[in-house]
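During the reporting period the student researcher (J.K.) took over the structure-prediction task from the postdoctoral fellow and processed the backlog of single-chain submissions. One of the processed entries is reproduced below for the supervisory committee.
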Amino acid sequence: MEIASLISNMGAGEALATLIVSMLPVVELRGAIPVGVGLGLPVWQAALISVIGNLLPVPFIIAFVRTIMDWLRTKSDHARRFVAWLERKGTGKKAERVRQTQFWGLLLFVAVPLPGTGAWTGALVAALLNMRMKRALPPILLGVLIAGLIVSLATAGVIKLLV
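J.K. obtained the following structure tokens:
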């Protein structure tokens, strides 16, 4: 079944809301899958839409985050402090583990659905570590798929417990 026909067979509003939530930093697919299910989508559809939405910002983050950070540094003290915070977050202990292990470190960093991990932070870490797009995208993609599976199973289990 094509993705276009899949989306047309489900509620467009529910799908769009799930897609948008999955693109948000911090929330990502970890919040979008339960939201999609709560809006009435089957778990697998909410997961598919959430994975797609969670991956959409990744290439842009990797490609443009350094340029945006350099520009922000020139705007104000608040912006400069925010950039410094992002750099600390993207180059701390977790980032050092990613640097040492590259593919597997980035995959695990994105895949584990814990606060402070995910596609946004993984893309930020990859950009701050100067990883090339072609080296950063595969582990981030696999990590998002694994996180999506974990969150989907957890969401389905919670629904079973409540029904």
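The committee noted the following: The radius of gyration is 17 Å.
J.K. will present the remaining backlog at the next meeting.
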